[in-house]
Design a protein that fits this description.
Elements (H helix, E strand, L loop, with lengths): L1 E15 L2 E15 L4 H23 L7 H21 L3 H21 L4 H16 L10 H22 L4 H17 L6 H26 L2 H25 L5 H21 L4 H25 L10 E7 L2 E5 L4 E3 L9 E2 L3 E5 L4 E6 L2 E5 L2 E4 L8
Antiparallel strand pairs: 1-2, 3-6, 3-8, 4-5, 4-7, 7-10, 8-9
Helix pairs in contact: 1-2, 1-3, 2-3, 2-4, 3-4, 3-5, 4-5, 4-6, 5-6, 5-7, 6-7, 6-8, 7-8, 7-9, 8-9, 8-10, 9-10
Length: about 375
């Protein structure tokens, strides 16, 4: 029990033979102060951190808007405190509390100062996981659980400010997945086994939170498609981090599919959904992961020739070909009959114009707008 010494000062005016003299007397008493709980002390530290972030963001404010350089500076100022705060953490729950507070405070600062929300979320996720990567790695450390809880905290911390900033939820999932995965993927010291656990943790934590919300609030006819969008963007972020780090991502696709499916099955089973419905939702989740993998491989300029080719066999009138991921436009002077195009192309024809394409299993002629997003082919 702490005690507080209270000193009461009394100023007494004494008159001696017509002369005034001030005399100071004092009395003391003892007041007992109850000890603060660990939760209260932790909350005080977090409040101090919140104020520091908000003060830093206001000092950086430029015409009521934070630019990219100022956001980077803000992230660096936060990162200086991360290592010390994580060292003070006693267990994983302490880490998760810090992660939530950091993301919530910084996202709110981004909202108030009109910074790019997605860019801020990604950079904060990277900064946080660059410190968590050094969390004691013992035989008892369950990295799937660690990453699942970290991503869950990142979502809870950023979701409200992101929605207020009108940020699409699937894109938020993408940035959290990428920002979480990147520090691990580019580390040369981590084993393949641990990286697979990282991929599983991310693709368990992110969908669990979002799918739970979807199952609670979305119209039944939209649930499957919404799950597919979330799985697609979560996989995109995870696989992009692997590709940017120069890692073969095939095993991560399997890990992501396994973890995402587990989330769907667990949540659907809790709601006592029919087995047929659970199978349908799991199928859409797996489709999204494969789509996200293909999107990522296309956007990162992996060899398109290895992904299947479609031959232009006839062109009539004006036809425009566009690479979706790069917005690069190819007019007739660049593409002609006999040339090949690949997935990730869109084709637009003017009135009275058409294009005929040769696939391995037949041809198709279009006189409108068509998008070649995926190419499936079988080598016999």
């Amino acid at each position: 029990m702490k005690i507080r010494l209270l000193l009461f000062i009394n100023l007494v005016l004494i008159n001696f033979n017509g002369y005034s003299q001030n005399q100071v007397t004092s009395t003391a008493s003892i007041e007992q102060i109850p000890e603060k709980t660990e939760e209260q002390l932790a909350e005080e530290k977090l409040n101090e951190f919140r104020q520091q972030v908000l003060v830093n963001s206001k000092e950086l404010r430029n015409n009521n808007r934070l630019n990219v350089e100022e956001v980077d500076f803000l992230i660096k100022s936060i990162k200086k405190n991360l290592n010390e705060k994580f060292k003070e953490a006693k267990d994983l729950d302490d880490i998760i509390l810090q992660v939530h507070t950091i993301m919530a405070t910084t996202s709110q600062a981004a909202l108030e100062n009109k910074a790019d929300m997605l860019d801020t979320v990604e950079k904060v996720a990277i900064a946080i996981n660059e410190e968590i990567i050094n969390w004691p790695n013992t035989k008892n450390t369950d990295w799937i659980e660690v990453l699942a809880k970290v991503t869950d905290a990142l979502i809870i911390g950023s979701l409200k400010p992101a929605l207020q900033a009108k940020t699409p939820v699937p894109e938020l999932a993408n940035k959290i997945a990428y920002g979480t995965a990147l520090p691990y993927m580019r580390s040369k010291a981590l084993s393949q086994e641990r990286l697979i656990k990282v991929a599983k943790g991310i693709n368990y934590g992110i969908p669990y939170k979002f799918i739970d919300s979807i199952l609670k609030s979305a119209p039944e006819q939209k649930v499957a498609r919404l799950i597919q969008k979330i799985s697609r963007k979560t996989a995109y972020g995870t696989i992009s981090a692997a590709i940017d780090s120069g890692i073969d991502y095939e095993k991560f696709v399997h890990a992501a599919t396994d973890a995402f499916s587990s989330s769907i099955i667990t949540l659907a089973a809790k709601r006592k959904m029919p087995v047929k419905k659970i199978a349908e939702l799991t199928k859409f989740g797996a489709r999204g992961i494969m789509a996200g993998t293909i999107d990522s491989s296309s956007d990162h300029d992996l060899p398109l020739g290895e992904m299947g080719a479609i031959t232009i066999t006839d062109l009539q009138g004006h036809v425009r070909f566009k690479r979706v991921s790069t917005n690069e436009i190819f007019d007739l002077d660049k593409l002609k009959v006999g040339d090949n195009i690949f997935q990730d192309y869109s084709i637009t024809t003017n009135k009275n114009s058409s294009v005929t394409l040769l696939f391995s299993n037949g041809t198709i002629t279009t006189n409108s707008t068509a998008a070649i997003k995926y190419v499936y082919y079988v080598v016999l």
